[in-house]
Write a structure and sequence with these properties.
The chain is mainly β. The chain has one helix and twelve strands. The longest helix has 14 residues.
Length: 144
């Protein structure tokens, strides 16, 4: 991949408001990432959202506790709260119900609400606010 192609992809990232892009070409991988200006990081809730949860049962090696792993269904930016100065949707130790919103993952200007697949207690929040997450990144562990 040459410099002209990389510049073209960088321009596309800026045009679409993307913070990361990965291109695979001829067994070579190029990953482009950029930071958004502080003003652009403000989360705005839009009426069109998709509610998604991807559970994956997990057990500790000693078999004493069952956990559900909630993973990101898309590449995007993780937001723990509905707005910059708002309280987070959940915290470690919170009891959650099936269908309850846990966070938002913003992908291409679309706010995707990630919901709990089943009732439980938030045992761990695996990512930080404003972190770029990949498809399949573990976001939460919920104790059943």
């Amino acid at each position: 991949m040459n410099e002209t192609e990389i510049r073209k992809y960088a321009g596309l990232m800026q045009e679409l408001g993307l913070t990361g892009l990965e291109i695979t070409e001829n067994d070579k991988v190029v990953r482009l990432e950029r930071a958004l200006p502080a003003v652009a990081k403000e989360v705005v809730t839009v009426p069109e959202t998709a509610a998604v949860a991807v559970p994956s049962p997990m057990s500790k090696s000693d078999g004493t506790a069952d956990y559900v792993s909630v993973k990101s269904p898309v590449v995007g930016v993780f937001y723990a709260a509905p707005a910059e100065n708002a309280d987070p949707y959940v915290a470690v130790g919170d009891h959650v119900k099936k269908g309850q919103t846990l966070c938002i993952v913003e992908a291409m200007k679309l706010m995707n609400e990630i919901t709990a697949e089943e009732d439980g207690i938030i045992a761990e929040i695996c990512v930080t606010n404003d972190q770029v997450v990949e498809f399949g990144t573990e976001l939460f562990r919920i104790k059943r």
